[in-house]
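Good day; I would like, with your permission, to put a structural problem before you. What I wish to show you is a protein chain and, alongside it, a tokenised description of its three-dimensional fold. I would ask you to consider whether the tokens describe a fold that such a sequence might reasonably adopt. You will find the record immediately after this paragraph:
***
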Amino acid sequence: MKSNLFAYGFRSQFFLAGVAALALVPLWAVSFVAGTSIGSGWPPTLWHAHEMLFGFIASAIAGFMLTAVPSWTGQKGFAGRPLIALALVWLAARLLILTSSLWPPLLPAIVDLAFLPLLGVLVMIPLVRSRNRNTPLLAVLAAFWLTNVVFHVGLWHHDAPLARNALIIGIDITLLLVTVIGGRIVPAFTSAALRQQGIDGALKSRTAVTVLSIAAMVGVIICDMVRPDSRIAGGIAGIAAVLQAVRLVQWRSLRTLRQPIVWILHLAYAWLPVGLGLKAAALLGGYGFAAFWLHALTIGTLTTMITAVMTRASLGHTGRPLTVHGLTTLAYVLLTAAAAARVFGLSFGMSYPTVITVAAILWTAAFALFIGVYAPILWGPRADGKPG
């Protein structure tokens, strides 16, 4: 049977994101708990953080943009050779980084840094040609790429704090994307779902709250650049947490509990004020329960939102009903449990190796279910027989 993996932008990049999630976390957990070598010449913690951000998350961002841009611009979707080239660059970067001790240090960096510019060129052409209102997202993508450049510079100079802070800022930028894009899709999909239930679907999204939420996230980025881990950074995070919570309250989350494909979007966004609030508590008060705020933002917000978007977009863009399989709902639950275990496990008396093990098992089970349900969808033809 002919593969459709490169028939549309989301297919290959969502599949690669799922495979990365399924492989990278167990590899890291086994290495950490057993004390074995990953194989990379990079410091293990930096390898783990980089690959989750610029391997898993970057692939998911690519899948989203390659699918959204044709919809935004009304132009033909991406398919074929450009997608194959992008996937090969992504895969080569992952393999070279995993085996970086075997290569000249610049080789993995050059290949890794090629991925986002290639993506940028692909999506820039239709955005600029159509003068689309989403064109400024190219600047966000460029800023995200620059954090990877700084990471590699830090790695080259054995400056672990610089490399770590570059990753934090990269995470901040992806959280800004969630604030902007999530702020559009969560209320839009919620309104549509409520109307299907015969409920008034109008949501009150106040423009002032939206603007202030985005501004606060820009403030988080700037503060992490100039005053990382400071009380000022904690204060800005606290303000952002309050604004994000107010924004979420507008979206009538409790009305979505009957539809997993909708409530998962709300749950993902809910982790954003939680994570920012924990960051504020950690930096302002040094509270131990908040020490792992970063994982509330990376697993809770980013990974959950990515999973929500991948599961929904894969159904909608292959002509399938927007109703998730029971196994997908279970994957949502397992991923949420993984986030809770990783963030709060120590507070409930687990040892640190146990926290890593439990969170990794839950995470791996979630993405094993994702691959099991969605690999046939991503590789196979559209259910309605249309191309793409």
About this structure: The first helix runs from residue 9 to 34. The CA atoms of residues 21 and 184 lie 26 Å apart.
